[in-house]
Design goal:
With 167 residues, the chain is α/β, with parallel strands linked by helices. The protein has a single domain (5-162), classed as 3-Layer(aba) Sandwich (Rossmann fold). Helix content is 40%, strand content 16%. The protein has helices at 5-13, 26-29, 47-58, 71-78, 99-108, 128-135, 147-162; strands spanning 21-22, 39-43, 64-68, 85-90, 117-121, 139-142. The protein has a 6-stranded mixed sheet, with helices on both faces. Helix 3 (47-58) crosses helix 7 (147-162).
Length: 167
């Protein structure tokens, strides 16, 4: 064990670590419902970036955090009928399938099309933020980023899902 905060948390709480690992929430540990639609899926192959986002999101009331190291694993998790993913936070530079294709697949899937998507990426192309928004992402944060700002945007998107839209 290297001593990262996520590893310490997993060790203390007995949760598993690896692809699709779930850190959980205090709400879940107290018997909350992990299929409540407040599950955030982080797609990030860099452990330190994933851990930074996990820790930032764990303080959001009622949110469960799951990490997938690849876009393929993320798609598998999103199509798992036992899970209700409430938001997707993804990097763009991923192995085998990049984040751009992941966004396109999510937006092209009728069941997932309205899922909030936040992109956190170190891509240096100046057209990348515009491209991700054009593909359907709700927000873009370039690395280095403020975990607090990403968390605030995530909370805003999750809260908007819970608020009924009145025409």
């Amino acid at each position: 064990m290297s001593g990262s905060l996520a590893e310490v948390y997993n060790f203390v709480t007995g949760t598993r670590k690896g692809p699709g690992r779930a850190l959980g929430t205090m709400n879940e540990m107290a018997g909350g419902n992990p299929a409540s639609g407040r599950t955030v899926l982080i797609v990030e192959d860099a452990e330190t970036c994933a851990t930074t986002l996990e820790v930032a999101f764990l303080g959001i009331p009622g949110v469960q955090v799951i990490v997938a190291p690849s876009a393929q694993e993320a798609l598998r998790l999103m199509h798992d009928e036992r899970r209700s993913i409430g938001a997707l936070v993804t990097d763009l530079n991923l192995p085998r399938m990049d984040g751009f294709e992941l966004i396109e697949r999510v937006r092209g899937d009728r069941r997932l099309a309205r899922l909030p998507i936040i992109v956190v990426s170190g891509d240096t192309d100046p057209h990348t933020p515009e491209r991700t928004l054009r593909l359907g992402a709700d927000a873009y944060f370039g690395k280095p980023y403020s975990p607090g700002e990403v968390r605030r945007k995530l909370e805003q998107l999750l809260d908007a899902q819970r608020t009924p839209h009145v025409p």
